[in-house]
Amino acid sequence: MKRKGIGLICLSALLLIGCSQGEDEDLEHMVETKALESGEYGAALPFLSANTRQQHQIRSVSLVDNLYIGMGLLNYAKAHFSSSSYTIQEGQLLVYDELSSLLGRESENNPDALNPASGSAFDTGNGIVESAVLVRDIYEVDFIRDKETQGVGIALVLNGIVGDNDVRVSDDKLQAFGEETARRLMSYLRKMPEIGDSMPIYIALYKNTASESSLPGSFFSEAYFEGRSGSFTAIDEVWAMMPSDEASQLDHASYTQFLQVKSALAGYLPDDVSIIGKGRYVDASLSELHITVEMYAKTATEALSLTQYLKSQLSTFSSLDYKIQVEVRCQDMTIATMVRQIGDKEVNVNTLL
Asked: Fewest beta carbons less than 10 Å away: which of 1, 123, 184, 293?
């Protein structure tokens, strides 16, 4: 009876915490999901959720920021880990306690912590801030090939605003701190037996945005370490709303075309139609454009007609060098989505009515 009771307890525990059947068996039965789009990563199955997920939720500035960090990390890592050769897995190396320690303050008891020691002064470039919290989070993704982890990608998330008075950290100061801290993190990872001295490590530095912003932050530096050496190169990335002066200055052609589409939709229905864009610019050129259209249609005919008209209006964006994603909403309900891929004139539409 005791043996049977212990067996039931173990079985219950496995069901509750979602334990795997052992690493060797997981690897033996590992399969790959098919990527949703060409050029994207497939995911390794069975899915192993990272136990650091609660840390990310607690430390997240916004859901927009949270989701983009992971997607941006994957996109930039493709230069070193081809999506045709690797699958991805949720970070399995930095566990909850390790991440908590790394995100703490450097001290005698926690020498590996990445944030400045309590009471220390940090020069933001716009004034001195004591006890600044600069490292907000660390995201990890593992790259799998031949059923083995053969690479690690890290997004080091940094606060661009620190202190009780919300002091903005200058770009130069944040870059210097971020790159030095990334090297410390790389050295820490090299001490882990699962990584060792030779597994490739890709690290991208990310500056988060203010909590009230509807835009993500941006990646601004990256390095690839095959051993312990690696050099950082700048990433020129920024997000901007459309319409805005910033979007006009970054890429005036796409901004003007956005205004043309906005004007075309303005009088289509008796009620107002709103259109807002979020553009991601890399090296001062538009890389992707996310558009949200909100209508107040009263009938299905009105909703379908405007959706069809909007699809035709996307040809206004003459350049095929950036991806366009559109969400069409009617009174807070998504009724259609549209995607125009880079280099493709065709617009794929899914209606949800």
From this structure: 1
If you ran DSSP here, which 8-state letter would residue 37 be given?
S
Measured CA to CA, the distance from residue 111 to residue 102 in angstroms comes to: 9
d(CA 333, CA 294): 9
CA distance 314 to 70: 28
DSSP for 123-165? E-SSSEEET---EEEEEEEEEEETTEEEEEEEEEEE-SEETTT
- The confidence band for 66, taking pLDDT boundaries of 50, 70 and 90, is confident
How confident is the model over 294-317, as a mean pLDDT?
A: 95
For residues 131-150, give the mean pLDDT: 95
Close Cβ partners of 243 (under 8 Å, ≥ 6 residues apart): 255, 258, 259, 262, 277
Query: How many whole angstroms separate alpha carbon 237 and alpha carbon 224?
Result: 18
Q: What is the pTM of this model?
A: 0.86
> Edge to edge, what strands does the sheet with 348-351 contain?
237-242, 274-282, 285-295, 323-330, 333-340, 348-351
Which residues lie across from 351 on neighbouring strands? 336
φ and ψ at 43, to 5 degrees?
A: -100, 145
State the Cα–Cα distance between residues 173 and 206, nearest whole angstrom. Answer: 14
Rounded Cα gap, residues 57 and 315, in angstroms = 39
Six-digit token pair at 212?
A: 């009230």
